[in-house]
Amino acid sequence: MNVTPDGRHCDDLMAALAAFRASCPVVHRWGTELARRLGGGARLLVAGNGGSAAQAQHLTAELVGRYREDRPPFSALALHADTSSTTAIANDYGVQEVFARQTCAHGRAGDILMLLSTSGASANLLAAAAEAHRIGMTVWALTGPAPNPLEAAGDEALCVDAPVSATVQELHLVAVHMICEAFDQAVEQAAGEAARGPAPSPAPVGKGIA
């Protein structure tokens, strides 16, 4: 039986997804840590080029808006979305600086920079990673197959083992939604703990009467 091109696309996606399941603990940890950081006043900066830019903006929309249930908004910025700043920086400083300069402007120590790239070799993302580390930010990378330069430049990386960029981007969207699931779960848990208040201190042990 001949397999059509769209059928091969589905087969490639299913194979990549099966392999990506091994990354679930890392994705969950990212979502939980993101909730802790943003809940404490930090912010998330996200960047990517082309289709990866769309994935980056998808993530920030879920955090500033909501993923499933209603909850407070959290600070998350897609660096490519400010078209005036992006084009001005590209014109004045070169395309390589479009994300690094915005990272310098908006990032603070303790913030997180997430970078998405199917190749893992985009010069403007590598420059942003270097700037984030200079500031004291944490850098997470979502990339295509390892090894690649962005994987090496990040503090942690999730690398999708798929030969086609479209499949990598599809798995990046799966990762985005999994991060949001873990994020919302951690936010809900923190809210429940805050509502219950601190655990009562044990009563002091009195001295016996001689």
Rounded mean pLDDT score: 93
As an assembly, this protein is single chain
Number of strands: 5
How many alpha or pi helices? 8
Radius of gyration of CA atoms, rounded to a whole number: 21 Å
Largest sheet: 5 strands, parallel
Beta-strand residue fraction = 5-15%
Estimate the helix proportion, in percent: 55-70%
Give a description of the structure.
The protein is of the alpha/beta class. It is 55% helix and 11% strand. It has helices spanning 5-20, 24-39, 51-64, 83-93, 98-106, 123-135, 149-153, 165-196, and strands at 44-48, 76-78, 112-117, 138-143, 156-159. A 5-stranded parallel β-sheet has the order 2-1-3-4-5, sandwiched between helices. Strand 3, helix 6 (123-135) and strand 4 (138-143) form a beta-alpha-beta unit. Helix 1 packs parallel to helix 8, helix 2 packs across helix 8 (165-196) and helix 3 runs parallel beside helix 8. The radius of gyration is 21 Å and the shape is globular. The model has no long low-confidence stretch (mean pLDDT 93).
List the helices and strands and how they pair.
Blueprint: H1 5-20, H2 24-39, E1 44-48, H3 51-64, E2 76-78, H4 83-93, H5 98-106, E3 112-117, H6 123-135, E4 138-143, H7 149-153, E5 156-159, H8 165-196
Helix pairs in contact: 1-8, 2-8, 3-8, 4-5, 5-6
Features:
5-stranded parallel β-sheet, globular, single chain, 5 strands, 55% helix, alpha/beta, 210 residues, 8 helices
